Amino acid sequence: MSAVCTHAVRYGWMATNPIRAVRQSAKRERVIVPLTAEEVQRLFAELGPRERTLVLLDVATGMRRGEVLATQWRDIDFEKKTLNIRKSIWQQHLGPVKTDESEKVMPLDDEMITDLLRWRSETPYAGYGDWIFASGRMKGRQPLWPEAIERNCIRPAAERAKINKHISWHVFRHTFSTLLAENDEDVKTVQSLMRHANSNITMNIYTHAVSSKKRRAQSKVVEIILRAEKATKASAGVA
Question: What is the pLDDT of residue 190?
Fold first, then answer.
């Protein structure tokens, strides 16, 4: 209900979200587990050109699913290597982005530009005002449906890639933020790239990623210690 009311506020149908005042459980139904860089690479190997470009754009920018599917070729400046996030789409209704912070100009890496240009040369919907990920069934008049592309293309590819984690658009966004934090990017940079209105959200993600790094570092030390111990015992046994 809160999500429905939030959507209504975004479109100006309601002034406020009354559900926000109701105390809700903070327990998440499913724990979001980000993908590793190696898992993303395996996933790419199983995706077709359209889906690969779509997932790359999503994972490497942290865009929400409604934002990435609402992008048009006019939103990309290939010379400046930027993407202008101006709108979002939900149930094929175009509207504003989630928050003021969400409307940003995002940088695009050279590899992303190359992938986008490759896809533009292949898609029949390559005009200035066309959707980047247009629906062929709708003859380009609408972008793809996020649920359909996830169910029919991305999840089967993840299964072929032997990825056992739950795959969703939010997992891709969480993967981006986690990889940023694990790459030792500062909190302000992560918040800016994720376009979080509240820095507390960024800190929660950042803390989780840093904790994971500490755990892996500790495990390596334990492995070294135990390996040395086993080697010592083996030498003593031989003697």
Answer: 62
The confidence score (pLDDT) of residue 132 equals 97
List domains and CATH numbers for the chain.
1-30 (no CATH), 31-238 (1.10.443.10)
> What is the CB neighbour count within 10 angstroms for residue 44?
17
Residue 131 β-bridge partners:
72
- What is the chain's mean pLDDT, rounded? 81
Tokens 């040395």 map to which residue? 228
Cα gap 122→50, rounded to integer Å: 9
How far, in Å, are 1, 2, 5, 95, 98 from residue 12 at the CA level? 16, 15, 10, 10, 13
Judge whether 153 and 42 are in contact, CB under 8 Å.
Answer: no
203: pLDDT strictly greater than 60: no
pLDDT more than 70, % of the chain: 70
- Contact present, 146 and 66 (Cβ < 8 Å): yes
